[in-house]
What we know:
The radius of gyration is 26 Å and the shape is flat. It is of the alpha+beta class. The protein folds into three domains: 6-72, Ubiquitin-like (UB roll) (Roll), CATH 3.10.20; 77-161, no CATH class; 166-333, no CATH class. It has 15 helices and seven strands.
Amino acid sequence: xxxxxxxxxxxxxxxxxxxxxxxxxxxxxxxxxxxxxxxxxxxxxxxxxxxxxxxxxxxxxxxxxxxxxxxxxxxxxxxxxxxxxxxxxxxxxxxxxxxxxxxxxxxxxxxxxxxxxxxxxxxxxxxxxxxxxxxxxxxxxxxxxxxxxxxxxxxxxxxxxxxxxxxxxxxxxxxxxxxxxxxxxxxxxxxxxxxxxxxxxxxxxxxxxxxxxxxxxxxxxxxxxxxxxxxxxxxxxxxxxxxxxxxxxxxxxxxxxxxxxxxxxxxxxxxxxxxxxxxxxxxxxxxxxxxxxxxxxxxxxxxxxxxxxxxxxxxxxxxxxxxxxxxxxxxxxxxx
Length: 336
């Protein structure tokens, strides 16, 4: 879309005119390989010719750099800054800890594009605290004792924090990708629905974590502990870089079920989803003997969830969005 309301001097019109910001594709050759990049150009609203606007060349350089890194799968400057933040380590110590020269990471932060080999090392450290710990151990003699201990403590903390299964992390990452805003309460319910529908359709659970019947509905305690440590929007937290790249590890079947849940249950807030789970047999059976306000951490067995949703599937055909919407409508019509 063009953006109106800005003016500058047009050398074709020989006067100050309004210009529009538009996207244009260009082809550039980098290391003997042609790439197509989408860059921003300023176009005179009167004559239609491109105009030279202050700051536009710098913007184009940034656009090309970001797109080139994305095409080649190279880490960005932002990725490197995230590593420094989550492992509490400076740029020179990070460079040495990863087995690079002391000035390598500082140069990357100034805009130098890393090789694929070095980029993969940086990406591995960003994605895996265990990998970062191995690199720290391998290169301990190259950095100060204080820098080593600080980074190792951060890596240990991250490993403990992200103690849920890889599959659970992948599902969470995909939910976040599909939905713009997810509260902790909403996420808990969506994970429960994913588990129930997937197990009903394919005869096995999607992740190994056990669900518990808490006052506010089904809860995965490991996920609760994970989000309790994030003091602001989890998606904006640098530590969530650990989730990047995990989405691609999901199967088509798994993505299909998550899409079904996101496109139906995901349209409601956490409190509405809580009402639905409170009307379902698995949670009610696990809560027998407990009042509405009495805390409990009773197990909500995977088998019970699966059997319930198998029955639901026979009645509503929950491998379709239409079937799930009908089920949701019926459950919300029940008296809680």
